[in-house]
User: Fold this.
Amino acid sequence: MKNQTVDPRRAAAAPRSGGEGAAAGASSNEAARFTATSLDQRNARTERGFHTLFLAMSIVLILPVLAILSLLITKGAPAFSWEFFTEPPRAQFTEGGIFPALVGTLWLVIVALLASVPLGVAAAIYLSEYAKDNALTRLINLAIINLAGVPSIVHALFGLGAFVLFFDFGTSILAASLTLAIMTLPVVIVSTRETLQAVPQSFRMACWSLGATRWQTIRKVVLPNSISGILTGVILEVSRTVGETAPVMFTGAVLFTPFLPQGVLDETMAMSLHLYMIATVIPDVPPEVPYGVALSLILMVLILNSASIGFRVYLRGKKKW
Amino acid sequence: MVSTASRIKLSVKDLSIRYGSTVALEGASFDVRDNEIFGIIGPANSGKTSFIRAINRMDEMTPGMEVRGDIEFNGKSVTDWRNLYALRSRIGVVFPLPVGLPMSIYENVAFAAKLRGVKGKADLDEVVERCLTRAALWDEVKDRLDSLGSLLSGGQQQRLTIARALSQEPELLLLDEFSIAVDPVTTMRIEEVLKELKQEMTIVLVTNLTQQAQRLADRTAFFLEGKVVEVGDTRALFKGQTKDPRTTHYIEGRFG
Ligand SMILES: Nc1ncnc2c1ncn2[C@@H]1O[C@H](COP(=O)(O)OP(=O)(O)OP(=O)(O)O)[C@@H](O)[C@H]1O
Ligand SMILES: [Mg+2]
Assistant:
């Protein structure tokens, strides 16, 4: 193989097949080949460098999650028993289980979802599909950003004033769930809006030019193709709702009640508040119990998430562009 | 043959289109007659697509697009249609880049019929088969009508788009460089269909291929840099009987 005429493309391609040794030669041909090669190698090095960097960042991200999970599992799993999940606490929280708190949290999450998902999705549809860029739209967007930035304790006080006292729902699941719903509304709106906007505009154009109304376009084309993204927002909301303590503490959750809620106007125990109390306030709780509650809380989020992810995968298998 | 007595489908009056400070079309005035194929030729940037958008009121959803002057559709200004959906449902549009909607091939073509209120399965089947056949796609997809329209090849999607436009049973069909993604043989087949369709509807054909305008159009308009240079009988234009030398230059391919 004579490289009398140096084809830059061949020269650049050479090290991939020829290996590093070929570049080490010193004849004029080899020098010409080496010039092209060094650029090639630098690119490859940079590429490898960034690949490694981003991989490292992702691993750094996973580490705390793994650490938390392994800590919770080693320390919390011993607390697990049939009784732990099916009995109310007894003997000043030192014995018994977390059943009422488990049920209470499910109530809180579901009622909060029932309030925030329809509202949030409808608002997102308006903002993405109908709103013109005017003062009202900008005001709404500003409100959403600000709502997202409000600390949860402020939401808690608002919920207390508005739902517990003003609307007179009392300390109840309804008041607590509505507070949670308002708190998580920005998450639902922003993620839903972004998903809707990811549906190519050309689909809408094609639909409209067939004479479809905006709503027909939304129902037949936009929503079916964004449902999995909308669910992602809901998953995020669920994760946040399950863990929040402050908003439910003032509005609907109580430290202890042996009764399960019978309706939305009942007060209830909640996992997050329960955990907070036995971890910080109540004396003489066996050390594995708070870890057990924390682990249950995380498992609950994981189970709810997997359910939604499973549903997403199922939907994605059906639709695609 | 189009007689001078034929009715007027579109009447364009002093139409100007701009996007912010960009002028896409200025002072356009001409008529499109019933049941003719009206060709529009012209180089890039001459405002052809913008004109198509203005006809079915796409300006309403194109940010920054501003339309002045008037287009009358069946004697009624398109800006006077309170119900834009009714206007658009009478106008079929095919844009240069094919858009298969993310639903089955069948649904793509049945969609407009359903919007019109066609219900029964048999009726819908008939619409789907007729329109796909006309768009020269039926043979290729008849065994997989349930697969996704958006996963067809580019050329097939373009024919699907044409079938969808035909399924509207439009009075007016706007074709914007429809053959850009379609192979020559299929293009010829579609061109034959267009000649038949002329009996049923008016066709505005924007094309980069002057030969295509020559083959199909009864009359042709030459757009250049946002101006309508001239509108005339296609055969006369292609014989060199033009009012403006620039038209001949463009047609003969020695432009610019
Ligand atoms: N959505 C838009 N926003 C801003 N400017 C636009 C938009 N669409 C078109 N234009 C501008 O309007 C002018 C005319 O464009 P138009 O698409 O009508 O040309 P055309 O004749 O269809 O060209 P081509 O043959 O390349 O398709 C161009 O200068 C273009 O930049
Ligand atoms: Mg164009």
